Amino acid sequence: MDDLKAAATAATRRGFLKTGLLGGAALAGSLASGRAMAEGDPVITEIQDWNRYPGDGVDARPYGQPSQFESHVVRKNVPWLTSDTISSINFTPLHELEGIITPNGLCFEGHHAGIAEIDRANHRLMINGLVDKPLVFTMADLKRFPGRENRVYFLECAANTGMEWRGSQLNGCQYTHGMIHCVMYTGVRLKHILEEAGVKAAGSWVLAEGADASAMTRSIPMEKALDDCMVAFAMNGEALRPEQGYPIRLVVPGWEGNMWVKWLRRLEVGDQPWQQREETSKYTDLLANGKARRFTWKMDVKSVITSPQVPIVHGKGRTLVSGLAWSGSGTIKRVDVSIDGGRNWHAARIDGPSLPMALHRFYYEFDWDGSEIFLQSRAIDESGFVQPTKDQLRAVRGENSIYHNNGIQTWHVNKDGGVENVEIS
Ligand SMILES: Nc1nc2c(c(=O)[nH]1)N[C@H]1C(S)=C(S)[C@@H](COP(=O)(O)O)O[C@H]1N2
Ligand SMILES: [Mo]
C-alpha cells in the first residue's frame, strides 16, 4: 500500500512539474493526446454512407433527440432501493455530462406519488393564511407578473450519497452522487408574490404544497422565502418537464431537494412550522445518541469526480480528471484533487461559470504512470467550508443517517484502468 502510494505520489510530482513548467503550452506540446497517422484506416480511406447519401430533411425531427449512438446516456434507478417506482428516485448520468447544466431529459426524478400530468389551463397557485388578501394566480397571471428572473441553481436530494453512510456500496457516480441536477430556472421571486398578497406581521413561515397525489408539503422559514426562493415555470429555456413539476415548482436555492415542491398549488403563510411528515419522520438525521437533527435545510459543500468512471483504456500517459463541486452556501472557491488517497492535494482548475449555489466544473490533468491510484476530490466554498472525509463526518453524525452525506469520495483505479468505489478515509 505504501509503495503504491509512493509510486502514485511520484507520478503526481512529475505531472505537476510538467504542467507547472509548461503551463498552457503543455496542451499543444509534449502532453498532447493526438496519435500518429496510421496507414489504411478505412474510416478515413473509404467513403461512408453518411458521406454519400443525403440524410433526413428539416422537420423529420420536430423535437430533437440526442444521437442514436448516445442512447446509453439515460437516467437510471436502482430497483431494490424502493418497492415501487411511483415513490422512488432515479439518477442523473453525471459521468456522461459536461459543463454545469443538466439537460432537461436527464435531470434525476424524485417522486412520492408518481408524475402529476397537469394541464396548465387547469392549474392555480393559491396564497392563503396570514395574508392581507388571499390570492389565486392562473398560469397566465404568473406569466405577466413583473420582475421575471433567470437563475442557475443545483437541486440535490438530501438522500444523495445516502446509501454510502456505512461504507461504499454502489458503483459509479451516477448511483453514488446522481441525485442532483443543475438548470437555469425562469420565474418570479416568491418574495414578490408574497408581497402582492401582503404578509401579516405574525407571518413567519410559508407552507408549500404540491398538486400531486402525495400533496408534498414543507414548511419554509419566511426569511428564506423572502430571500432567493422562486416560483419557476421554465427550465433551460423551455417549460418545466412534467417530471420536474410542470407547470410550476418552487425553487429553494442551496436547500435540500425535498423543499423544492413540484406542481406547486398552494402557499400558506403561518406563524410556526407545520411539522409535516417530510420534516419529522423523513428528512431528519438520527444521531448516535438517539436524538435527531431537524430542519437541516442547507446542502453542505461537496464534490465528486465524474471522469474517469468507465475504465481508462488509453494506458499510461496524459489523463484527464473531471468532476463537479457545489455548495448550498454560495460559490466554490477551490477544488483539490488527490491521486494518492488524500495524502497529497493538487489544486484543480475550475472552468465555466462560478455561480452561487450552482454546480462548478473542475479539471485536473496529470501523467498517469499506469500504477494503481486512489482518486479523491475535496471542495472548499466561498464561506471557507471544507468538504470533510467520511470518517470526520461519521465522528460528528454517527452512522444512522441517510441524509446530508457530503463526505469525500474515493475511486480506486487499478493497473488495467478499471474504476471502483472504495473507502479509505
Ligand atoms: N409535489 C412534489 N414535490 C416534490 C416531490 C414530490 O414527490 N412531490 N419530491 C421532492 C424530492 S424528495 C426531491 S429530491 C425533489 C426532486 O426534484 P426532481 O424530480 O426535479 O429531481 O423534488 C421534491 N419536490
Ligand atoms: Mo429527495
UniProtKB/TrEMBL annotation:
UniProt GO molecular function: heme binding; molybdenum ion binding; molybdopterin cofactor binding; sulfite oxidase activity
A Pfam family this chain is assigned to: Oxidored_molyb
Keywords: Metal-binding, Molybdenum, Oxidoreductase
Cofactor(s) this protein requires: Mo-molybdopterin
UniProt KW Oxidoreductase keyword: yes
UniProt record, GO biological process: sulfur compound metabolic process
Every Moybdenum cofactor oxidoreductase dimerisation domain range: 294-409
InterPro entries documented for this protein: Ig_E-set, MoCF_OxRdtse_dimer, Mopterin_OxRdtase_euk, OxRdtase_Mopterin-bd_dom, OxRdtase_Mopterin-bd_sf, Sulfite_DH_SoxC, TAT_signal
Protein name according to UniProt: SoxC protein
Species of the source: Pseudaminobacter salicylatoxidans
